[in-house]
Structures are given as structure tokens and as C-alpha cells.
Amino acid sequence: MFSDFFKGLKSLFNGHKTVMKQAFQKRVTLEYPEKKRDVSDNFRGRIEIVKDENDKLLCIGCGLCKKVCPCNGVINIEKQTEENGKLHIRYERDEAQCIYCGNCVENCPQKALKFTKEYEFATDVKSELRKIV
Question: Is 0.85 topped by the overall pTM?
Fold first, then answer.
């Protein structure tokens, strides 16, 4: 009976010792969302389509991103030629189904897709995750 009492007392002492040791060390937790963690350059955040300095899409509509995507129906590309012969590309991505594998970004011959460092894009409305450019 006394041995159980002393084991409990030792356990209580060790617990208080751990708490006091941690109380005076630097905090490890981050006060999210007020303070946000910096992500590395290799981070796979939201995928965006790249435009040049004249605000024109770099995408040529080859469809390679759609072919290498393991998720069917995530990427849709429509090419339309206007009356003046100008090519218009409609690029659509469904971020709700995307697994962010990076195949589309790595295989794009024009480097028209890139990962951003944005990681907060949760929403209650699923239609907001459909990006059309």
C-alpha cells in the first residue's frame, strides 16, 4: 500500500517537473490564423495559370495537362478560333477533385501552370473551387 502511494507521489512529482521545465522554454505552437507559417519554395499549393506581361495566357491549349492528370474531369480545355483568326482558350480546373500531384505543372510545355504558396482555400460552396480562365 505504501509502495503504491510513493509510486503515485513520484509520478506526480515527475509530471510537475515536466510542466515547469516546459513553462520556461520557447513556445512551439503558432498562433494561427493571426500568424502564418512560411512555406518552402517546393510547396504544392493552389495551381494557377500563368499570364505574360500583356495579360495573355501562356497556355496554347495542347491538352497535355489533361492527358497526364490522374483524376478524370479535373481539367477541361476548349479552343475557339474567333472570326479574326485569333485563338481563344477557355481553361477550367475543378480544385475540389484535384489531388495536387503536380503532373500538369511538370508536363506543361509552355510552363503555363505553376504552384502558388496559397494553402487556405477551404470553402462551404463547392462551386467556388471551379476556376475558369
Answer: no
